[in-house]
Each structure stands twice: as structure tokens, then as C-alpha cells.
Automatic annotation (TrEMBL):
Gene that specifies this protein: hop
UniProt xrefs under PROSITE patterns: BACTERIAL_OPSIN_1, BACTERIAL_OPSIN_RET
Pfam families, sorted: Bac_rhodopsin (PF01036)
Regions that span the bilayer: 27-49, 61-89, 109-127, 134-156, 162-183, 195-216, 228-249
The protein, known as: Halorhodopsin
Length: 276
């Protein structure tokens, strides 16, 4: 066994306490986590206050979905801060860090499976889309997150890491299609096109940053360090979650009448009944 692989084996058997120590000794990584925990805490309190007078069912559902974004976020970042959802991975041959033990905050990818569907649920409700379209966006999004997690965790083959990355991107294209093509028309009909348009652009532009960071970071071609990548994700999270959610809730609180229907033209595809 070579010295390098011995080190790798040692780190791969690292306890949670070892991982925690590694996180705490990396200032960039540690600060990128704690800043988000603090922000999520403030944002949760702010959103409770902003939504306290909302009464109509659809507006309430948008509010709960939006609230869940920082709630999932604080749990996600607490998992990272404790070392529970961070581990060492030995990268396969062909990877820029082949044979080295790389610190992987894989919990991020896991928890996106819960937070991103909430963002899409809130946007779909805002556009008053139909249930099939909402189901499509959310399931494609979950597919994107789970296959992205697989891409990050695979250590058996460099090629398969990128195959899963490609599959995740394909799911992402489906989400983008719904956001850019289907929902704008629904939002127009629902009278929410202005705010939907702003949030759609914010979402599409910021979400595109995630696969770029993955590819440039230590999971991909390793041009960026673990700490810089983590700050990249944290920065995107601040904008894609907290700023997004704040703009949405502020609008819903001020325009509750526009979203006061029960929402979700379930199964009708938005069409009016034949005998109306
Ligand atoms: C990965 C890597 C594989 C390819 C693609 C990705 C896309 C991730 C996205 C994440 C968005 C996360 C948000 C989180 C908020 O809580 C998994 C990075 C396409 C779009 C908005």
C-alpha cells in the first residue's frame, strides 16, 4: 500500500469528530455554513411576521411553501456544520484529485431535494398552473437533485460521475422548460405575470450557477477549492432562497386578492368547464 493510499484509507475511516475538526479548521468553509445558519434564522422570523395576516388558502399555501425554504435551509446547514452530512471521498482515477481524500459536503445535494420543490411549488401556485405541470416540474427537479447527489458521491468511476452529471442536467432542462415556457402563460392568465417574470429570471439565472459551480469545484474539474465552492453555493443560496422568498412573500402579502382563489385547477389543465 502506498503512503498516499494509506492516508486516503485513514481519512475515509474518519469519524464525525475528525470531519468536524476539518470543517472548523477551514475558515472559508466554516464561515460559508454559519453565515447561512444565522441568515436563515433571521429570515424565518421575518417571514412569520410577514405572513401573519394572510388568510386565503392559495396565498397561505404559497406562504407555507416559502417558509419551508429557510426551514429546510437551517436544518441543511446545521447538518453540514456538525459534520453529519459531510464526508471524505477518495476520487477515482481520471479525476483531477485522483487518489486524494476530498472533503465532500454532500448534504447540500441531499437537502436540495426538499428545498427546491418548495420553491417550485410556490412559483407554480403563483402562476396558478395545473397539477400536471406542477407535478412535472417538481418530479424533474427531485430527479435533478438525486442524480446530482449520485454524481457527487460516485467514487468507482470518473466517467460515471459525469454521466450522472449529464442525467441531472437533462432533468434540469425539463425544469427550465416548464419555468420558461409553460408557467409564464399561466401567470399571464392569473394576473401575476409581473412578479412571476421577475422571480422566473432570478430563479433561472441563479439556478444555472449551481451546475457551473459543481463542474468547476472539487466534485468536477477541481479548479476551485472546497471552501471557495462552498461560499459560491452559499452566495447563490442567499439570493436564490432568501432574496427570492422575500420578494415573493412581500408581493403576496400586498396583493393577496390576486392570489385569493383556491388555486390549482386540478386535472383541468386550466380549461373552463364545457357547459360554462
Ligand atoms: C447539480 C449538479 C448536477 C447538474 C445540475 C445541478 C443543479 C443544481 C441546482 C440546484 C439548485 C439549488 C437550489 C437550492 C436552494 O435551496 C446538482 C449542482 C443541473 C439547479 C436553488
Amino acid at each position: 500500500m502506498t503512503a498516499a493510499s494509506t492516508t486516503a484509507t485513514t481519512m475515509l475511516q474518519a469519524t464525525q469528530a475528525d470531519v468536524l475538526q476539518e470543517i472548523q479548521s477551514n475558515f472559508l468553509l466554516n464561515s460559508s455554513i454559519w453565515v447561512n445558519i444565522a441568515l436563515a434564522g433571521v429570515v424565518i422570523l421575518l417571514f412569520v411576521a410577514m405572513g401573519r395576516d394572510i388568510e386565503s388558502p392559495r396565498a397561505k399555501l404559497i406562504w407555507v411553501a416559502t417558509m419551508l425554504v429557510p426551514l429546510v435551509s437551517i436544518s441543511s446547514y446545521a447538518g453540514l456544520a456538525s459534520g453529519l452530512t459531510v464526508g471524505f471521498l477518495q476520487m477515482p482515477p481520471g479525476h483531477a484529485l485522483a487518489g486524494q481524500e476530498v472533503l465532500s459536503p454532500w448534504g447540500r445535494y441531499l437537502t436540495w431535494t426538499f428545498s427546491t420543490p418548495m420553491i417550485l411549488l410556490a412559483l407554480g401556485l403563483l402562476a396558478d398552473t395545473d397539477i400536471a405541470s406542477l407535478f412535472t416540474a417538481i418530479t424533474m427537479d427531485i430527479g435533478m437533485c438525486v442524480t446530482g447527489l449520485a454524481a457527487a458521491l460516485i467514487t468507482s468511476s470518473h466517467l460515471l460521475r459525469w454521466v450522472f452529471y449529464g442525467i441531472s442536467c437533462a432533468f434540469f432542462v425539463a425544469v427550465l422548460y416548464v419555468l420558461l415556457v409553460q408557467w409564464p402563460a399561466d401567470a399571464e392568465a392569473a394576473g401575476t405575470s409581473e412578479i412571476f417574470g421577475t422571480l422566473k429570471i432570478l430563479t433561472v439565472v441563479l439556478w444555472l450557477g449551481y451546475p457551473i459551480l459543481w463542474a468547476l469545484g472539487s466534485e468536477g474539474v477541481a479548479l476551485l477549492s472546497v471552501g471557495v465552492t462552498s461560499w459560491g453555493y452559499s452566495g447563490l443560496d442567499i439570493l436564490a432562497k432568501y432574496v427570492f422568498a422575500f420578494l415573493l412573500l412581500r408581493w403576496v402579502a400586498a396583493n393577496e386578492g390576486t392570489v385569493s382563489g383556491s388555486g390549482m385547477s386540478i386535472g383541468s389543465g386550466g380549461a373552463a368547464p364545457a357547459d360554462d
